[in-house]
Amino acid sequence: MAKPIELSNVTKAYLEEYQRILKKMMQGMTYVTITCSISENFIKQIIPHQVAAIQMSENVLRYTTNIPVQNLALEIIRTHTEMLESLEAIQNRCCVVQNSEYKLYEYMCAYKEITEAMFNAMCAPPVSNSININYLREMIVHHQGGIRLAQNVLRFCICQELIPILRCMIQTLCEQLEAMEKLLDSLQNCDCEC
């Protein structure tokens, strides 16, 4: 059995804040008053996901000295702030698009499966003393979940204003995911700790 890693005080502080952000995101995405509008439900459910990406990135920026990680975190803050503002701008208009109980049930079943997998993976990522590696592992799972959530909602009859935002979201998350996976590979292949 592998010996547990002894975490530095800095890593512990980073992870404590990450856990706080994660808990708030999970509560925000789970305890939503469900209506007959898939569009409205999705917007209310995805907003805490977007906020968490911003807060997770702000958290790593408090500690990292790695320039590629800093640039990535700043990019995530910028793009997720833009997505958040776009979603909030259409929220009150999208609620008028209603769906059948069957479609709502189908949407929610997939939503629960996606979020449970994402929450489980984000609650138990492999932990190291490299805050950069921890951040990338956490954010990779976060983005994978976001892509699946956006793809899920596109299967249904939804608010027309939401569709271009979702397509942009998927493209942005896929691009950032690819960049994170490359950066994680490069960090794991060297001794970069901060």
Automatic annotation (TrEMBL):
Q: Which Gene3D superfamilies match?
A: 1.20.1260.10
Signal peptide segment: none
- UniProt superkingdom: Bacteria
DUF305 domain segment(s):
41-184
Q: Would you tell me the protein name for this molecule?
A: DUF305 domain-containing protein
Instruction: State the species of origin.
Output: Lysinibacillus boronitolerans JCM 21713 = 10a = NBRC 103108
